[in-house]
Amino acid sequence: xxxxxxxxxxxxxxxxxxxxxxxxxxxxxxxxxxxxxxxxxxxxxxxxxxxxxxxxxxxxxxxxxxxxxxxxxxxxxxxxxxxxxxxxxxxxxxxxxxxxxxxxxxxxxxxxxxxxxxxxxxxxxxxxxxxxxxxxxxxxxxxxxxxxxxxxxxxxxxxxxxxxxxxxxxxxxxxxxxxxxxxxxxxxxxxxxxxxxxxxxxxxxxxxxxxxxxxxxxxxxxxxxxxxxxxxxxxxxxxxxxxxxxxxxxxxxxxxxxxxxxxxxxxxxxxxxx
Length: 274
Ligand code: C2E
Ligand code: CA
Ligand code: CA
Ligand code: CA
Description:
Bound molecules: ligand C2E, calcium ion
Largest sheet: 8 strands, mixed, barrel
Oligomer: single chain
Radius of gyration: 20 Å
Number of helices: 12
Strand order of the largest sheet: 1-2-4-5-6-7-8-9
């Protein structure tokens, strides 16, 4: 009995209890969202130095009848911990390929690339490459139009396996972008050792570009390294014309951010493009 009492004293923490409860509630709600098709992809344009649209990034949203549109930061971490990210990520892949097959039919969007975010757990699945091949075949989307955005988190797993998988996907025609570069425990050597097509400069560096000279120095060196390794360099979170101008002088030639367009539904995207 003493032990029981002890346990109560040690483990009763209302905040922890609330978090655990919230975790299970969200997990349950996510399962329901999957079966009731409550997920949506929104698209944010990506453009080149001339301001021409080269494609878009697909960003996941969850439409809840009561809470409205829920942003991914509020459920992706829970989906990752509960492994629900696997069926959710698969849905994203399917939906993206379906969208690509539609874009391919129109002259304006024919050459667009669509980037999707792939969570590390999802990428680490043994049959991930097969899933991609299957989705492409099923929808008729061209592999050259699909880009996978991975973060450094994928490198936690067996690096050789991950690199082999990336190489295999590239051989199929896909592009690979290293997302959020510079956050995490980035290693510059990733740029050299990973088979990449693109490196994406994180929003946090772009935000302080004018005010913070060390952020500017980081951006400049990532652009220079990217160029040295023959990678496309894209800056995310670009909000002002001053940022565009600065990034341009640094040699960055691809942009994404509110300045060019916010994430919108596929039908609204067409009106934003040049
Ligand atoms: P991310 O991949 O770094 O995506 C960029 C985020 O920055 C998006 O937030 C986008 O809406 C936002 N953003 C774009 N331009 C600007 C700008 O100019 N200013 C500011 N302040 N923000 C901008 P979002 O859509 O809320 O997504 C958050 C994160 O959720 C993403 O970050 C990504 O890590 C994750 N995510 C989104 N969709 C998926 C998905 O389908 N699968 C997985 N695994 N993760 C996803
Ligand atoms: Ca991304
Ligand atoms: Ca990013
Ligand atoms: Ca980011």
